[in-house]
Amino acid sequence: MKFPMQRNPIKIKALIILLLAILIAGFTTFLAIGILGTSTATGRSGKELIGKKTPFFVAPKVGGQL
Fold first, then answer.
1. Half-sphere exposure at residue 9, Cβ-oriented, CA atoms within 13 angstroms
2. Quick check: is 18 in a domain?
3. Does residue 46 belong to any structural domain of this protein?
4. Does 16 reside within a domain?
5. 60, 66 Cβ separation under 8 angstroms
6. First to last CA, the chain
7. pTM, whole model, 2 decimals?
8. pLDDT in tens, 22-50
9. Is residue 51 part of a domain?
10. Which range of residues forms the domain containing residue 12?
């Protein structure tokens, strides 16, 4: 006695590929929803600096010395 799923391996492969595609699409959608309402760190720091003096910093020269 054979099970019905053993008769057509092409349908089994297609079903597995379809399930994996749905899983990947769902995970990608989940990640995309997570970043929808966020703003960049650069944008947030710019909002905090409006009306304030810019911070002072000294960058090292190419040789590595100040």
1. 0
2. yes
3. no
4. yes
5. yes
6. 82
7. 0.51
8. 999 999 999 999 888 777 777 777 666 77
9. no
10. 8-32
